[in-house]
Amino acid sequence: MQKFPCPFCGLRDEREFRFAAEAGKRRPDTTRDISARDWSDHLHVVRNPLGATREIWVHMPCQEYFVMARDTAAMTVLDVEPLRKETV
Amino acid sequence: MTGFRAPARGLIDRNRILSFRFDGRAYYGCAGDTVVSALLANGVRVMGRSFKYHRPRGAWSSWFDDPNAVFAIRLNGHELPNCPGATTELQDGMEVRSVNAFPSARFDLKSALDLGHRFLPAGFYYKTFMWPDWHLFEPTIRRMAGLGKLEMSEIDGYVSDQTHDACDLLVVGGGPSGIAAARAAAERGMSVVLVEDHDALGGSGLQVARIEDRDMAVWMREQIAAFQAAGGQILSRTTAFGVYDHQLVALIQQRGFGRGPRLIRMRAQRCVLAAGALDRPVTFGNNDRPGVMSLAGACDLLARYGVLAGQRIAVMAPHSQAAAQIEMLRDAGATMTEVAPDGPARALGGKRLRGLRVGDQTYGCDTILTSAGMMPVLHLWRHAGGKLSWDSTASAFVPASGPDWMTAVGGANGTFDLADALIEARAVAVGDDRPKRLCAYQAHPPEVVLTDKSRQWVDFQNDVTVKDIEIAARENYVSVEHLKRYTTLGMATDQGKTSNIPGLSTMASLRGKSIPETGTTTFRPPFVPVPLELYRGAHRGQQFHPLKRLCLEHRHRAAGAALGEYGGWLRPGWYGGDTPQDAIQREIAMVRHSAGVMDASPLGKIEVMGPDAEQFVNFIYYNTIATLKPGFIRYGFMLTEGGIVYDDGVIARIDQNRFVISCSSSHVEGVSAMLEAWRQDGNDPDRIFVHDTTLNWPTITVTGPKARDILRRLDLGVDLSPDAFGHMQMREGRFQAAPARIARVSFTGEVSYEISVPVAQAQALWDAALEVGAEHGAGPLGLEAVSVMRAEKGYVIIGKDTDGETMPHDLGFSIPRLKKKAAFVGDRALHTENATRPDRRRFVGLKVPDGDPMLPVSAHIVTRGQGGPSSCGYVSSSYLSPTLGHPIALAHLDQTQATEGTEVELLHLGQTRRAIVTAPCFFDPKGERLHA
Amino acid sequence: MRDDSARWDPAAGLDREAFQTPAVTLKILRPNRQTLISGPYPAALQCANVETATGWPEAALGDHYAVRLRRDRILVINGDALSDGWHAAKGVAVSDMTGGYAMLALGGPKAFDLLRRGTEITPDAASKSVLRGFHGYPVMLYSHGAGQFRLHIPSAMVDGFWSLLADLARQLE
């Protein structure tokens, strides 16, 4: 059972977390034309690499969404970064 | 008698005599015995039968490496199957039965199977699965398989405990190395937990007279006392059985026979693995005979239980630690004959051993002790990702590179000399470098030779022989993972603790390769068999899937409610003691003629607040919300980004900066989470806040033509006249001096008011509504009647009348898709090739010809082509409508077929039905009742 | 369509006797008010009229205090009455949740051992938020003085949660 560091709450075990998305994906402006290919890529294509990856996770109890860099092969957490910059 | 109790040896309490029975015969043991040690002390050699050939089996060893002595045991009304006799503590009154044997282990009728062994070779199961038909064999094989029976009544009272813990250092194994490591670390101020699977600490140290110039028992006492004085914690009867991600070590702690064990999820900063080593069996002819045992196991039996394995013992143990072990047994009074395994060897005798033949020499004996060398116990090391390397001097796998938080010491590291092991353990415990060993251990296991003279056993429990491995090699199952599955090698309850290395070395010999070239199978948790109950714990009964409960549940029960699960809540389906069908019809008639009072508390009440709330809700919903005025309500869909309908609900605007989302009762958590995800993705989270206030606002719905008359009597402080308070509007009023929110929305097609009040007022409101309602013939209303009434109106239930492909325009809601300018979730996906397909399914109603019964839900609507019928839709809801007096159904149908008035054919479980396509709304299509 | 009334013990809600064993004591508390305030942390504190909001392992003391739920959310126990909705001047959102959460007091010599059965918790691993998953239940959990703990659970789950704690308490020796 993995332990993940929520940037707000600190280390908690994996039962409290959910994967949300791969980091770096930006929703396209849907009020403009988007090709079917671009939309399909946005919606369905994930890199899912073996090794180092950057993902958005959510700590469900406190609903903090954050970036987690981890190694999917070694199952190690490399870094976490809050999406919100203020640290109070 | 071949075995006996040596005087004044062991940790057992000879003054506490325990009586027990084995296969019906009475025996006696001592407190501190295991079932196996007690049986051996009584001279019982045959303890069970092997799995496939029903060969007689005796104990191979004294602890978890024994694959043979598996029993069904009854004590104090508890009967548990699959009890490993070597690790089950003996208790007074135990009724022990051998398994795989009928009528008893000594006389087993199925042992005739052994004569047919030529017909049950390796790959038997593989081959019978393929040809001629597994089902011919299955009933017989199933009846023969299994290691005892478990009664349901046993499961009910058998409950494990699960807990979490953490420590700086976890020491696995309470032998001398483990104790020394634990003490050294504790004295450096670390929080240390020492786990030992026996009741008593000591491990292999119990077999020596002196440790570090002290009497062994004194040394143990001193070390343990110092460890505990330094704050160390000892968990005895506890086995570390698995290592999981991020340094989680799973421990199972036994709590006595018949009582569920304890699971401790231990998060360890560091782990010292001092799990010791096991004997590797020598592979020779008839080596499965009762009386052929592990040398180290025999020494352990003597040291712990004072049991001498035999009186005339032949030993085949070509390694450098054997001399001391042989001496120990000789000291205890056995006649020891050392035999070098320098030729083909074979055990002589049947249930009773007569001798050992090696080459041309025969050695008379009643017991054969063997060890082809010591095998470090490295299962946890492998669970943690540690690598193994082959030590050719020791002829064993030893730890190579591994995780930085785990270190193996002592026997587990191949450090078999006690003095070396203690130095190593102390250094490792405090983080110093591992010192060089002073003593070199050597082992020279004999080569495995294929012979036709007698069968040589590799896996004792699953009956895998050298011959079987040879067949696997011949049929090209040479990868060890294939070998394992083809022959079932290592798949018995001991998971190959004794059989894997002999199996690998056999394969290596047969192929002329080395053991490291042959490879090992994967080591997986659990290290020892654990009951499934360990993983269940409190997740049982009503805790398996706990439902949310209404604060008025006691009122519903008092009113005779039939409660059922609806979307994660326990809610009234209907009221009254008549049949469900009658109750539901009665409630529908009541609502259509007067009114019903329903507990709608689970209905979502998610508040979205802040200066950006309007723009945010407008983005979340398919429908345009930005134009909604305070005091008004709009129906809308929430979509996924793929354009699929996720939820429907109503959105009320309370003021400029505040909306209340009433989503489906079953979707409150999901909708809240979805809102929060979008809020933090691309929005300014300081300008939007989402509060799920559902549980603070129980809701009572009053619905029916008399609803307004009932509400008037509740003194809500709101003008209820239709002109002042129309359909799809919301008002804030008071009920008994508390705030009340009244929303005029309807799921029945009648005038309906949803009144939400604080929890403290809920019961008073419910009682008042029913009391006033009774004067009008109104009464409590359950969900089943509501779901019929909503179908009469053609309203969807998300997840019932929609599926994973349903888009809003399929349900007849097309305008936002075509007209809404602002971005919204799922917008782009509504214009893909798939979303605009001409044959998309449309939501329709179905009527049956007069006199026909209800259509079955999930019946397929079919068209007939050349290839037979093909589905073009299905029935999603179907009821007998008491309002209309005929069956109604809702369906999804290819829109090219969906013209109203079309007759369609349906197929369901071989039956053919006919129906006529209609609009989904069957009742009051103009909404006159709704707007009344 | 099935009547499962008999499969579920009748819900007692908050009307229940204290649970007492030599190991733990558990009882329902009935605060006068519980208020959810969301907004930038300093603004939320100011709105609640408290100095700080408790996390783990520090203790909340007295009867009027706040606990921290999220980066931008606190729950105020027995605070002043505030109107529900958006408070534009302060930049905070307020919701009364008095009936939304059941509040439990847990004490006794084995109280912490009981907590460890439901969640991976240690006395020293600090957390700003008091929210946790506890055996699948979403709870707020914080200290209220030495050996005393308080838990808040969504009120619709109090029956299941109470019987879970009672089940777990029976495992304590």
Features of the shown structure:
heterotrimer; B: 932 residues; alpha+beta; seven-stranded mixed sheet; six-stranded mixed sheet; 23 helices; elongated; C: 173 residues; six-stranded antiparallel sheet; 3 helices; 16% helix; globular
Task: Detail the topology: elements first, then pairings.
The complex is a heterotrimer of chains A (88), B (932) and C (173).
Chain A (H helix, E strand, L loop, with lengths): L2 E4 L3 E4 L3 E6 L13 H9 L7 E8 L4 E8 L4 E7 L6
Antiparallel strand pairs in A: 1-2, 3-4, 4-5, 5-6
Chain B lengths: L3 E2 L7 E10 L2 E7 L3 H7 L6 E2 L6 E2 L12 E6 L2 E7 L9 E5 L25 H7 L3 H11 L7 H5 L4 E12 L3 H12 L4 E4 L14 E2 L2 E2 H14 L3 E3 L2 E7 L3 E6 L8 E12 L3 E3 L12 E3 H11 L1 E2 L3 E5 L5 H10 L3 E4 L6 E5 L3 E6 L2 E4 L2 E4 L3 E3 L2 H5 L4 E4 L4 E4 L6 E3 L9 H12 L27 E3 L4 E2 H9 L5 H8 L12 H12 L3 H4 L14 H4 L11 E2 L3 H6 L2 E6 L2 E7 L4 H14 L2 E4 L6 E4 L3 H8 L12 E7 L5 E11 L2 E6 L4 H12 L9 E4 L6 E5 L3 H6 L16 E7 L2 E7 L7 E5 L2 H17 L3 E2 L2 H10 L22 H5 L21 E7 L12 E6 L2 E14 L4 E9 L8 E6 L2 E8 L14
Parallel strand pairs in B: 2-8, 9-10, 9-16, 10-13, 16-29, 18-25, 20-21, 20-25, 32-34, 35-45
Antiparallel strand pairs in B: 1-19, 2-3, 4-5, 6-7, 6-8, 11-12, 14-15, 15-16, 17-26, 22-23, 23-24, 27-28, 30-31, 33-34, 35-41, 36-39, 36-40, 37-38, 38-39, 41-44, 42-43, 43-44, 46-49, 46-51, 47-48, 47-50, 48-49, 50-51
Helix pairs in contact in B: 5-6, 5-10, 7-8, 11-13, 17-22
Chain C lengths: L18 E2 L4 E5 L4 E5 L2 H8 L4 E2 L10 E6 L2 E5 L7 E3 L4 E5 L4 E7 L3 H8 L12 E4 L2 E7 L5 E6 L3 H12 L4
Parallel strand pairs in C: 4-5
Antiparallel strand pairs in C: 1-2, 2-9, 3-6, 3-8, 5-6, 7-8, 9-12, 10-11, 11-12
> Which structural class should the secondary elements of chain C be placed in?
alpha+beta
Rg from alpha-carbon coordinates of chain B: 38 Å
Summed up, the helix count of chain B is 23
Helix and strand string of chain C, N-terminal first? Answer: EEEHEEEEEEHEEEH
Distance between the termini of chain C: 43 Å
Q: In percent, how much strand structure appears in the residues of chain C? A: 25-35%
End-to-end separation of chain B in angstroms reads 97 Å
Number of strands of chain C: 12
Structural class of chain B: alpha+beta
In the sheet with the most strands of chain C, the strands line up as: 1-2-9-12-11-10
Shape of chain C: globular
Number of helices of chain C: 3
Overall 3D shape of chain B: elongated
Strand count, sense and barrel status of the largest sheet of chain B are: 7 strands, mixed
Mean pLDDT over all positions of chain B: 93
